[in-house]
Amino acid sequence: MTIRVAATGVGHWHSLYDAKYLNIFDDIPDTELVGIQDTQMSVAEHRSAAIGKGTPVFTDYRKMIDDTKPDFVLALGRHDEMAETARYLVENDIPFMMEKPMGLNSDQVGEVAELAASRNSFAAVPFTQRYLPWTQQARELLNTGNLGTVSHLYFRNNRPTSDRYLAWDSEWMFDPAMGGGCLRNLGIHGIDLFLHLTGEDVEVIGAQSSNRVHGRAVEDYVTVMLRTPSGILGTIESGNTFPQDGTDGEWKISGSKVLLAAKDGKIRRVTADADETSEGAPHQHLSITAVEQILAAWRAGEKPPASVVDCYRANKVVDAAFDLIRSR
């Protein structure tokens, strides 16, 4: 069966850049893009032309859905518009995947989560970092007990200048009222990994932010310190200060038996008896894997690999970090 897919809010850069979701859905077998929407017609037309198949364009996602009757929706859009779109999709029983953060704060995302639970909706979030080879190895070590007593996790994701959003029709990322900034966009990945791997709730015990590099209204570097009830510590760093195209990234989990770290495409596993390095690059773009896993779960009638509830939990931590930053 061909899955008819409609895309909302394609002014979000992940439509054609970084994740490149429109390209992914265009390339996956048995999927067809039947509609592309953005409030700016010029942006919707640009995205459609880039795909090159004459996909119909709309400025109103409700009209697009009424006209095209999609089986599945790729939901993007400005962060301050996401929760309203998500509620509409849930209320109309349309399965979808939506980029994080799904809203401006945890209250908005929590309302969507409650509604989705009440209607047993399929509402997925592509938390792509869960598909890193490092994450898979960490999960195996934790499940088998071979990591030992967990001490701490560390996550750093420092991406290039936020000026790239200008070229990608997403200048709203410079406006905190629209949900811009690196913590809710990038840092949320590290927070989700911490929650995913520890399986515990967390307390934010420290947070700081800076806009020193770019001087914009939104932060360009953030550090958040976490602690679970059992005493596992976490440090999350995210930013937009990397001076060229690429990423300064590092992932680390440390236990009493193993330290597992990933950096520069390599995975390092250190035990009392060995210090081994292996390839750590994923076999394909993480966004492709996320979409494949999400569609597979939906086709099988299963729950999403990562859901709106997971996004809600991560947003609660982001909110707590911002509260601490503002209190200083």
Concise structural overview:
The chain is an alpha/beta fold.
Overview of this structure, please?
One of its GO terms (molecular function) is nucleotide binding. Residues 136-257 form the GFO/IDH/MocA-like oxidoreductase domain. Pfam families: GFO_IDH_MocA, GFO_IDH_MocA_C3. Residues 4-123 form the Gfo/Idh/MocA-like oxidoreductase N-terminal domain. The chain is an alpha/beta fold. The protein has two domains: 3-127 and 291-305, 3-Layer(aba) Sandwich (Rossmann fold), CATH 3.40.50; 128-283 and 312-326, Dihydrodipicolinate Reductase, domain 2. The chain has ten helices and 14 strands. It has helices spanning 21-27, 41-51, 61-68, 82-91, 106-119, 133-144, 164-167, 182-198, 286-299, 308-326, and strands at 3-8, 31-37, 57-58, 72-75, 96-98, 123-124, 150-160, 203-210, 221-227, 233-242, 248-255, 259-263, 266-270, 275-279. The protein has an eight-stranded mixed beta sheet with strand order 8-9-10-7-11-12-13-14. The protein has a six-stranded parallel beta sheet with strand order 3-2-1-4-5-6, sandwiched between helices. The longest helix has 19 residues, at 308-326. The relative contact order is 0.15.
